[in-house]
TrEMBL record:
Protein name: ABC transporter ATP-binding protein
Annotated PROSITE patterns: ABC_TRANSPORTER_1, ABC_TRANSPORTER_2
Pfam families: ABC_tran (PF00005)
CC annotations in GO: plasma membrane
Membrane-topology descriptor: Peripheral membrane protein
């Protein structure tokens, strides 16, 4: 049975990979997690711990070998990645991943606005959305609103990542996966996008999981922090426990696990 209050649950999820010599390795091992509606969970873990694999099974881009995944109480273990985009979006580390390079900023936003609908891009659709696109891009504070008619490939990395984030959140997904989405940006741009991210997540009451290697961000943002080690959740801190954490304490978990 699953926790019916959870918007997302992973129950004993195992993912195995087969190497060329035929041997099998479990990269997620009986992975269990209940995510409550409105949780903002920061996800830490060493390189190779299984964080991206965890996101891949939630998104459906990698099948689980055993176990189950539930969305709002519904078993979605066999639902395709494409169908999961109706309630789930993801932003990747690479600014090139989330957007169509030859399309303008406004056209990309229109794609996001029409997700789950027929995807024909008609000028009248664009015209009717333009004021909204101006509003949400201006709110990012990085002059993206002045580049609505620019091809996305000509944006800065920070602007492109801000656009990916706006596209992922436009339709208020039930589950937002942020996979080191600020890691490729310079410190100032990264901090700005992180602050806008938190603002949007809070204002829209989004349920969000964010992988990061930045301990400061993992501590500063969200109401819950998990550590993944060796394909499973090794630590799960609630709001109060997280508030009492320090960077040194977090480092000690990694040292102890090494
Ligand atoms: N398709 C695959 N085939 C073989 N091994 C894989 C595959 N996908 C992941 N792995 C291995 O599984 C382990 C977990 O990988 P994963 O990318 O989930 O880790 P991660 O925690 O996201 O790491 P990082 O912080 O470096 O991004 C790694 O050892 C990785 O090499």
């Amino acid at each position: 049975m699953t926790n019916t209050n959870a918007i997302l649950s992973l129950k004993n999820v195992t993912v195995k990979v087969r190497s060329d010599n035929g041997s099998e390795t479990e990269i997620l091992k009986n992975f269990n997690l209940d995510v409550a509606d409105g949780d903002f969970i920061t996800v830490l873990g060493a390189n190779g711990a299984g964080k991206s694999t965890f996101f891949n099974v939630i998104a459906g881009t990698l099948p689980a070998d055993s176990g189950q995944i539930f969305h709002a109480g519904q078993d979605i273990t066999s639902v395709s990645a494409e169908k999961r985009t109706a309630f789930l979006s993801r932003v990747f580390q690479d600014p090139k991943m989330g957007t169509s390079p030859r399309m303008t900023v406004a056209e990309n936003l229109l794609l996001a606005a029409k997700r789950g609908e027929k995807r024909r891009l008609l000028p009248r659709h664009l015209n009717s959305k333009m004021a909204d696109f101006e509003r949400i891009t201006a709110a990012m504070g990085n002059k993206l609103d002045q580049r609505l008619n620019t091809a996305t490939e000509n944006l800065s990395g920070g602007q492109r990542q801000a656009l990916s984030f706006l596209m992922a959140t436009y339709k208020k997904p039930d589950i937002l996966l942020l996979d080191e989405h600020t890691a490729a940006l310079d410190p100032k741009t990264s901090a700005e996008l992180m602050q806008k991210t938190a603002q949007r997540v809070n204002e829209d009451h989004l349920t969000c999981l964010m992988i990061t290697h930045r301990m400061d961000d993992a501590l500063k943002y969200g109401n819950r922090l998990i550590v993944i080690d060796n394909g499973a959740v090794s630590h799960d801190f609630n709001r109060d426990e997280k508030a009492a954490l320090t960077k040194d304490k977090l480092f000690s978990f990694f040292d102890a696990e090494a």
